[in-house]
Amino acid sequence: MTLRVLIVDDQEMVRDALRAVIDRRDDFSVVGAAADGEQAVALARDLMPDVVVMDVRMPGMTGVEATRQILTAWPHPGPPPRILVLTTFDLDEYVHAALRAGASGFLLKNSPPAQLAQAIRVVADGEAMLAPSVTHRLIGAFTALPAGLVPGAPRPPAGRNRLLDALTARELEVLVLVARGRSNRRIADDLGLTQATVKSRVNRILTRLGLDNRVQAALLAHEAGLLTAGPRADPHQ
């Protein structure tokens, strides 16, 4: 299957470089390029890409607001595109805000082409592009952000979120591993499950918690104290 990709960056040189890298892959097709957030929203709705590679620091409408509008006001049947945000710095408050708004991952602009290609594939498959080496720092920075940084994205209350009571012990176990940056394959290996079972459980967790993606699930797990307290004891799976 060919993945349809929309590129968003305010610098023409960067757009051209990204197009050259992405179009070189047989399984990708660049369907358009936008120079700002407003154009990104319009093109995303017109072209219906699978993945949007989104810069966050742009004049006018930022990538944060563009991400929010694309994901919360998608006018077509079926899910909106996955958003992969780009930044020059690995701990950028705009990147954190974009992930809170529903983006599926982030990548540094100086990442090698192979890593960009892998990131596009990962987010297109419904997983989060969060390297385990930076997950802890990223989530820590998230929790320090002002609640109003992203309109319409309320912070969960401190302590254990009552929504977690709807999850089984096994689902809590999966949630903790997601929050630690594990891929579905790693979770399957750790828990002795198939990848299909893990994917199904992750989707069920997101549905029960009313979340859009694994990044938001990781945030909720962190803010609820699951990474320090561990899953509750419960014999039911």
Summing up helix and strand content along with how strands pair, one would put the structural category as alpha/beta
Number of helices: 11
Quote the beta fraction.
5-15%
Question: Helicity level, as a percent range?
Answer: 40-55%
Shape: globular
Distance between the termini: 35 Å
Number of strands: 5
Q: Give start-end ranges of low-pLDDT stretches.
A: 145-160, 230-237
Description:
This protein is an alpha/beta fold and 237 residues long. It contains eleven helices and five strands. It has a five-stranded parallel beta sheet with strand order 2-1-3-4-5, sandwiched between helices. Helix 6 crosses helix 10, helix 7 crosses helix 9 and helix 8 packs across helix 9. The N and C termini lie far apart (35 Å). The C terminus is likely disordered.
What's the short version?
With 237 residues, the protein is an alpha/beta fold. Helices cover 48% and strands 12% of the residues. Helix 7 (169-179) packs across helix 9.
